[in-house]
């Protein structure tokens, strides 16, 4: 079948991504402890969460790890406006600080739902960190506590970001629009 998709254009090369992740680890390490539960939002957040937790370890912070599996885009380029929850936390988080990690903050609906689930589970504090934040015309709540990169308002692929399930493994972040 002929592929009519546009060619991805590199916006943020992997070397810049690595520098941004190391800088995030330096900023986050002082405000968490080793009992903090890093919580990746599957699927797209996997690549960033793997890098950030290892960057935290390099600065002496070895935190717990869990996952929430949420989806709102499916194969579309725009949010369906509703979040499907495919899998909850694996372990209890009651009384623990939770650090939610995701690849991109766009409408903000996914992060808001993750924060709601963590609070409902009894987390003592919920911090949020996204690698990329896209601009949005209206206020989003909550805004992430930590942001790596202010992205342009373009459709992004790579570093976990997908186009209908593909291109997540590109090491650079690219625009595909
Ligand atoms: O701020 P929002 O508008 O909610 O968009 C951000 C979310 O969208 C993507 O997830 P998606 O629902 O596509 O699932 P995926 O993680 O499987 O890619 C991305 O990984 C974020 O979790």
Automatic annotation (TrEMBL):
InterPro entries, A to Z: HGPRT, PRTase_dom
Keyword Oxidoreductase: no
Catalysed reaction equations from the record: IMP + diphosphate = hypoxanthine + 5-phospho-alpha-D-ribose 1-diphosphate; GMP + diphosphate = guanine + 5-phospho-alpha-D-ribose 1-diphosphate
Location of the Phosphoribosyltransferase domain: 20-162
GO molecular function, a single term: glycosyltransferase activity
Protein name per Swiss-Prot or TrEMBL: Phosphoribosyltransferase
Keywords annotated in UniProt: Glycosyltransferase, Transferase
Keyword Membrane among UniProt keywords: no
Organism: Brevundimonas nasdae
């Amino acid at each position: 079948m002929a592929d009519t998709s546009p060619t991805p254009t590199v916006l943020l090369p992997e070397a810049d991504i690595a520098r941004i992740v190391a800088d995030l680890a330096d900023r986050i390490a002082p405000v968490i402890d080793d009992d903090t539960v890093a919580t990746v939002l599957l699927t797209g957040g996997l690549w960033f969460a793997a890098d950030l937790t290892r960057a935290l370890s390099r600065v002496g912070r070895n935190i717990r790890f869990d996952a929430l599996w949420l989806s709102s885009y499916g194969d579309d380029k725009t949010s369906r406006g509703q979040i499907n929850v495919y899998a909850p936390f694996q372990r209890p988080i009651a009384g623990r600080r939770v650090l939610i990690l995701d690849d991109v903050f766009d409408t903000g609906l996914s992060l808001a739902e993750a924060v709601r689930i963590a609070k409902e589970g009894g987390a003592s504090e919920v911090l949020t960190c996204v690698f990329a934040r896209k601009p949005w015309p209206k206020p989003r709540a909550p805004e992430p506590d930590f942001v790596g990169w202010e992205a342009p308002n373009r459709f992004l692929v790579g570093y976990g970001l997908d186009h209908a399930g593909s291109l997540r493994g590109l090491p650079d972040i690219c625009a595909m629009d």
